[in-house]
Amino acid sequence: MTGRLLRRDRLAIAAIRAAVAILQASVLFGLRESYRSPTDDLIFAPVLMVAIFVPVVAAAGIGELSPKWLFAWMAAATILCAGLATFAVLRDRTASGPSGFLFWCGFTARLGIILLIFHCLVTATAADRRWPPTAATSRDYSWTLIVRLLLVALATLLAYGGIVSVASLVRPADIVEGTPRLDAPGILLLTIGVIHLAFAATTRWSSGVRATRAVLLASLCWLLPATVVLAIALSCSLFLSGGTPMEGSASAALLGCAALLILLINAGPWPEGRAGSRLLRHARWAGAILIAPLVAGAAVVWTTAYETNGATPASMTVLAWMTIAAPFAAGYGWTAIASGAKLRRLANTNLLAVPFAGLVLIAISTPLADPARLAVQAQYSRLVSGRVAPDAFDYGLLRFEGARYGREALERLARLHGTPRDNDIAQRAAAALALTDADN
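The structure assignment produced for this chain is given below.
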């Protein structure tokens, strides 16, 4: 009787997975056939983001979450995807060309990170039936999900290569100038099927996922000493040079190194560093100490660039990442000082900093903290307050990088009149408004 019930449950789960895959393919096909022009983006973009991410949330949650938890999380993910995509469209309904493509690539990646963060929190909370979940549960579910996603991505890439190879022989129309058409019906359908089959396989054969996770974490641990040396070199080069030679992408490099340290520290022995070699224990301690200088160095470089050039959407995005890194820097540094190489209560920092990171990423995807809006507001204030001369102001930044906020600011500037300075600003703003994307 138990075996029969088990087989029945497996068949039910397989049927649900198949239904989710068919529904996802149907919606994507419908969007592909119905899209006509950018005027449809206000409907198209939210539905597309929901169709891409919510079925993946379902595929990752089936077998891991109870139906109540899964449906609640899918509903929240649907609202999140649709809402943020709507804000993204309203941010700049005229976005096109390479800049528009890059914006949507960045938005999609950011939305994926947001969903990854909260999916890990939801599964860990559901497993422990409490908030906050224990450190061991959070780590276990987070790394398991990351490994599952890596395996799914690998399987999808391998299958996609095979699908394209076969399609080039069977349906040459799906290959245009040697490049596969990503929206070709057969290729899209088979790719979606492979993704859902891969999720089912990683759920069914959890022992293989655990073995892969163990190998991955062991490999990552031994990258930590080299990353600590890199962090020391970056910190020394920054403070010895006074920050000037490192301006430009220096803040991003320092924050990237800090993020890598956070990742590798959490890949190490858990909790309290009782396992592993003495080298790894001391490398984890040194890494926890070094995160604060790296974030502080990024802040110094960012401040120097801000005082020189003012705000840009890119610099405000870096500011958001510094805001995310600050709780990690403070928490990890304090833990390393207070508990030494054992790094006791490091999990407490993660339980506070990780949800905070997700909330910051949501905020910068809305008008509340949109980097473009904040940059335009700061640049507009610099110009009208007289801190920058009209002929030294970058009107093109507002026109091409400020989204609709920049164009609205230029329209306000173009209406200025009265003093010679106001007239000069108005003339330059009107000229900037007349520029097209070809002039960028």
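Interim note for the steering committee: Residues 373 and 405 are 6 Å apart (CA to CA). The chain has three domains: 2-214, 222-366, 372-439.
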